[in-house]
Design a protein that fits this description.
By secondary structure, this protein is an alpha+beta fold. The protein folds into three domains: 89 residues, Butyryl-Coa Dehydrogenase, subunit A, domain 1 (Orthogonal Bundle), CATH 1.10.540.10; 117 residues, Beta Barrel (Butyryl-CoA Dehydrogenase, subunit A, domain 2); 145 residues, Butyryl-CoA Dehydrogenase, subunit A, domain 3, CATH 1.20.140.10. Helices cover 47% and strands 12% of the residues. The strands form two sheets. The chain has a four-stranded antiparallel sheet, with no helix packed on it. Strands 1-4-5 form a three-stranded mixed sheet. The longest helix is centred in the C-terminal third of the chain and has 31 residues. It is globular. About 3% of the residues have low confidence. InterPro entries: Acyl-CoA_Oxase/DH_mid-dom, Acyl-CoA_Oxase/DH_mid-dom_sf, AcylCo_DH-like_C, AcylCo_DH/oxidase_C, AcylCoA_DH/ox_N, AcylCoA_DH/ox_N_sf, AcylCoA_DH/oxidase_NM_dom_sf, Mycobact_Acyl-CoA_DH. It is an enzyme of class 1 (oxidoreductase). Belongs to the acyl-CoA dehydrogenase family.
Length: 411
């Protein structure tokens, strides 16, 4: 790119930043003002009805699904423009997205693998903020070991529909969702990642029971979901029976997408809240705490640059943006979850250490303390969900370094 093109690109990026910032300033106010910095991890049950209304407001402004191809209702923005949107959204205090699972996970998977009828049925509701999705992967005996799923799907020979029985767990916002995508075993004789089917299922039907799981912080943002003969229509199989593992893994590839930059902007806010607390209570005078805050700042910059490399590689390889989903994962992608989850867990501990003895006291009138306490509590789960540290290290060793696979017993 020559200097003239570079200047034009920079001018366009600055214009987009101003456009997003102006829209957020004009819209994240009034009835939506209370949503600023709310609804993120550990706070997902905050104002769910209002956040659904916010999704519809975003859709009206054309700010949902900005990376989806235009043919499927998105803006088709390139990676850097999507990064700008995510960063400016988070900079303005944009709330946690109720539509994240739909827009960031099942939507791109439908674009990559769905039939034309499935795309026409499901994509508009996601784009318009009128239908919400949750993820049915983990089970009591199949969390990080996803290939061990025991939820069963049996085909009704009379209709071709599927009857589903089993249990999913840690299902975020299932009680606020309309649909769930479910990985189930359709071949009872199969083992591991063979014989699986990927189903799209409505939650409001007989045979589905949703039970909340109360967390140590008091929230109930995720649930157990029980299936007892619940139905998935024959037309709502994504891919073919037996192809479930490939679809499921492709979906997880979309999970490490553009929204990571918005996540990092939220981390920036959290680090800012910690430094404000340190100035307010004098903890900044502790040299060791100052060094830890500096290391957190440096680690956040490393995280950003690595994410940009990851996203650039995905764009060049054709994956991660709602395309074919078939590009191999870059090494930067393999290490990303391990890096940010450990960094964020350490940030949670730093927050508690900066608060000092007050970290153990509950005072709902102290918004700053409550916010940091919630962040610290939830950050302990970061190295467990979406693949534990141990699983992430196995992935890095086997897929990134080409080392022999770890011996795994048959279940």
């Amino acid at each position: 790119m020559d200097s003239m093109e570079n200047q034009s690109a920079c001018a366009g990026q600055a214009q987009l930043r101003a456009q997003v910032a102006d829209w957020m300033s004009a819209n994240l106010r009034g009835e939506f003002d209370c949503l600023k910095h709310r609804g993120g991890p550990g706070d997902e049950e905050a104002h769910p009805g209002l956040r659904k209304a916010w999704e519809r407001r975003l859709a009206e402004g054309g700010w949902t699904c900005v990376g989806w191809p235009q043919a499927h209702g998105g803006r088709g923005l390139p990676v850097m423009s999507q990064v700008i949107f995510q960063e400016e959204y988070a900079r303005a205090g944009g709330p946690g997205r109720m539509g994240h699972i739909g827009e960031g996970l099942i939507g791109p998977t439908l674009i990559a693998f769905g039939s034309e009828a499935q795309k026409a049925r499901f994509l508009p509701g996601i784009r318009n903020g009128t239908e919400f999705w949750c993820q049915g992967y983990s089970e009591p005996g199949a969390g990080s070991d996803l290939a061990n799923v025991r939820t069963r799907a049996e085909r009704d020979p009379a209709t071709g529909d599927w009857r589903v029985s089993g249990q999913k767990v840690w299902t975020s916002l299932a009680h606020e969702s309309d649909w769930i995508f479910v990985l189930a075993r359709c071949d009872p004789a199969s083992r591991g990642n063979k014989g699986l089917v990927f189903l799209l299922m409505p939650l409001a039907q007989p045979g589905v029971e949703i039970r909340p799981i109360r967390q140590m912080g008091g929230g109930v943002e995720f649930n157990e979901v029980f299936f007892d003969g619940a139905r998935a229509a024959a037309a709502d199989v994504l891919g073919a029976p037996g192809d479930g593992w490939r679809i499921a893994m492709a979906l997880l590839g979309f999970e490490r997408g553009i929204s990571t930059l918005g996540q990092q902007m939220q981390f920036t806010h959290e680090l800012g809240w910690i430094t404000e607390a340190a100035r307010a209570n004098g903890a900044w005078q502790d040299a060791a705490l100052r060094q830890r805050m500096a290391r957190a700042w440096a680690g956040l910059r490393v995280m950003r640059y690595n994410a940009l490399r990851m996203l650039e590689g995905a764009e060049q390889g054709g994956g991660g943006g709602g395309g074919d989903g078939g590009a191999p994962l870059q090494r930067e992608t393999l290490i990303y979850k391990y890096y940010w989850s450990n960094w964020h867990r350490d940030l949670g501990q730093l927050a508690l250490d900066v608060l000092g003895p007050n970290a153990n006291r509950i005072d709902e009138a102290d918004a700053r303390r409550t916010r940091l306490q919630q962040m610290a509590l939830f950050s302990r789960a970061d190295t467990i969900y979406a693949g534990t540290n141990e699983i992430q290290l196995n992935i890095i060793a086997e897929r990134g370094l080409g080392m022999p696979r770890e011996a795994r017993g048959q279940s």
